[in-house]
Write a structure and sequence with these properties.
With about 230 residues, the chain is an all-alpha fold. The protein is built from eight helices and no strands. Homooligomer. Interacts with ARC5 and FIS1B on peroxisomes. It is found in: Peroxisome membrane.
């Protein structure tokens, strides 16, 4: 059986794994910068540099990531017309996000005109937020279906005591529910970050809101991608 170090190595070998680690760096440093800005400018400046470097690194790691959504639609668009529609809308938004994120990264490192950064950031954040709405809706529908199925299985379990298959099915539904709730938490957190870019407001743009949202998203991703 794999121990913690084995699992960590497997986790960090995944693109999503290293992304969640660096995302943790990014938003921890954001909070450190905010906390130290008035009391220790030197520490605050170093934290800001760490935050910027982490953000740019994550964009580099995501090169070609827009193909994931395209492949998901190509291979498994959904089991019903409703899920197919939700999958198209969700993945389309995510593909826009990751595709234009390439140009945002290139403009921020100076390869493209830095003036493009603001426009690319808006388009990318809009696609991201648009897609997350439909991912959230899809997950809630599946969670609701799982609860209904679990109730029926619980009734069957009460009648047919000791049925291993029924118990295994109930366990699988509960595991899937936890994973989907983690996905919802991550998507809601990222939606808040996206809204801060699309429609700036005191709540979404507050450093604490952004920092906590980023960490919630990162740690939910850790949970979902951690090897079992």
């Amino acid at each position: 059986m794999n121990d913690t170090v084995d699992k960590l190595v497997i986790f960090l070998a995944k693109r999503d794994g290293i992304d969640k680690l660096v995302k943790t760096f990014q938003y921890v440093s954001k909070l450190v910068h905010w906390h130290a800005e008035s009391t220790n400018p030197n520490i605050a400046q170093r934290a800001k540099q760490w935050e910027v470097a982490s953000g740019l690194s994550r964009k580099a790691f995501r090169s070609g990531r827009f193909l994931t959504g395209f492949n998901a639609l190509r291979r498994n668009p959904g089991s019903t017309p409703v899920f197919k529609l939700l999958a198209v809308l969700a993945n389309a938004g995510e593909m826009v996000y990751f595709f234009f994120d390439h140009f945002l990264w290139l403009s921020r490192i100076g390869t493209l005109d830095p003036k493009l950064a603001k426009k690319m950031s808006y388009i990318s954040a809009f696609g991201e937020s648009f897609g997350y709405i439909f991912f959230i809706v899809s997950d809630f529908i599946v969670i609701k279906q799982g609860i209904e199925k679990e109730r029926k299985l619980m009734e069957k379990k009460f009648v047919e005591k000791g049925d291993v298959k029924v118990e295994e099915s109930i366990k699988n539904i509960k595991v899937d529910r936890v994973m989907r709730l983690m996905a919802v938490a991550a998507n809601v957190a990222d939606l808040i970050i996206g809204l801060a870019e699309i429609e700036p407001n005191p709540f979404c743009n507050h450093i604490v809101t952004l920092g906590i949202s980023g960490l919630v998203s990162a740690w939910a991703g850790w949970y979902r991608n951690w090897p079992s």
